[in-house]
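Hello Y.,

Per our agreement to keep a running log of every chain we model this quarter, I'm adding this entry. I've kept the format consistent with earlier entries: sequence first, then predicted structure.
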Amino acid sequence: MVASPSRLQMRCCMGVRMTGAAAAPAASSGGGGAGPCGRSACEAPEQERRLRALFQKLDVNRDGALCIHDLAEGLGRLGLHRTELDLLKIVKAGDKDLDGQLDFEEFVHYLQDHEKKLRLVFKSLDKKNDGRIDAQEIVQSLRDLGVKISEQQAEKILKRIRTGHFWGPVTYMDKNGTMTIDWNEWRDYHLLHPVENIPEIILYWKHSTIFDVGENLTVPDEFTVEERQTGMWWRHLVAGGGAGAVSRTCTAPLDRLKVLMQVHASRSNNMCIIGGFTQMIREGGPRSLWRGNGINVLKIAPESAIKFMAYEQIKRFIGTDQEMLRIHERLLAGSLAGAIAQSSIYPMEVLKTRMALRKTGQYSGMLDCAKNILSKEGMAAFYKGYIPNMLGIIPYAGIDLAVYETLKNAWLQRYAVNSADPGVFVLLACGTISSTCGQLASYPLALVRTRMQAQASVEGAPEVTMRGLFKHILKTEGAFGLYRGLAPNFMKVIPAVSISYVVYENLKMTLGVQSR
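Predicted structure for the entry above:
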């Protein structure tokens, strides 16, 4: 298979080579002890002077700010051609005050942040770790992605890459003709080209696949082209499903206690954690702590598979490059995929709640419970609480994703120099915090959903709507009543995240998924 230059351009975030004044920000790092990863302190004033000169070159209308028109015309004068979409991405990425343009401070901040991302790409391609990318390394990188090219073709890619529009001028990344690219050449070439999801970041920062806290409402993870083409994606999903099963089983007593507190706790029946466990053991013995866990584990496989397939189809439907999804696009696709998956397996959610609330001897098993519900309440009973469940997807998935991405980007900007690998503790901390925030935001809806699912299992309970139930809880218990069971729910987050991570890593090795 022959890879065209545009293929490598897409995968390696390739952009444009800056010349003259435009090359100023990418000054040589040959002096002062600075290498590919940074500049010495003595270069800072000179760097700011050169950035100011570049800013003034691009500021066509001399108003002290860069809009899309300024960038298009200014870069055009420098012989550089960028699409309107690329220019819009640059402005959006650096526009902190949301005024649609970049002042000098925002321009400098964007370039510095952008350069950090370029370092990660350069490091991931520089397999020999010698500060240069040669033809062999390009061949190896493309082979990792499932694309086979010859060394001669790689040399042509090094020598000549078309930029911007296909009719634009030819520029050369390898400026000194050595058939290698050093850090300065790489940085000059890409400096004003938007870079988004770097494969190495996608590889290390899995979130939804790794962490299972009992609620499968998170936005699905992205997979690199390499993971897709080598079939590693399904191994990740299987490892994630197995990790979720072990995690949910280990934390099942806390999960059942949460359900009991959501349904039965009130001002007149103030159920505490120790008292709840004592009551469960007294009523059904130690085994009763795991009631409802079987169906909770069984629904992992169909829900994960449906959500992943729906997510991929929705991404194609909205016409977005599969490895270039922005946060709001991931939230849209992930929320819709979650809604489809939840709709498909929702009867299992109702069964899980009823099995967790059952008394000793009430049902002989899951099938008996399902038959009992169907005969006494009809098919509609399997969709009780459906509306609050659907409404809970957006706040849970949105806040979880936003917090995780914020923490991830903060770490990448501050600490990612040679690798995007955060290490186990950073990953666990980010996953725990984002999951906790997502659960906190959607918890009132989750509580109302559980009470609606449990209506027929509570003797004498009247049929109420979601709105009526909210009003009843607020009137009789106050706002605190919407957070019954929150303590055991939060207590299970850290052990659930830790267990799922350890099991995931072990299953991943067993299935032959190699971490870099």
